[in-house]
Prior knowledge:
This protein has one helix at 24-30, and strands spanning 10-15, 18-23, 33-40, 43-50. The chain is mainly β and 68 residues long.
Amino acid sequence: MVLDEPKATDDVYKINGFTMMVDKELHEKTKDITVDYVSYGMGSGFRVASEIPIAGAGGGGCGSSCSC
C-alpha cells in the first residue's frame, strides 16, 4: 500500500470516506481485494487479502493476507 494519485491504469473506489486505487491489470488477476486494520498481540496494522491469491507472491502484498 502506498499514497499515490490515480492513473488511467487504475480502478478507483470511494469507500467510507477513503479513495482506494487498484491497478486494473492486478485487479483482473486478484478479483476483490479486502483491506482491514487489525490489532493483535503487541501490534496492529493493515491486512490486505485478495479473492484469488497470486502464485509466487512470496506471502506479501495482495497475493495473500499480510500486515503492511
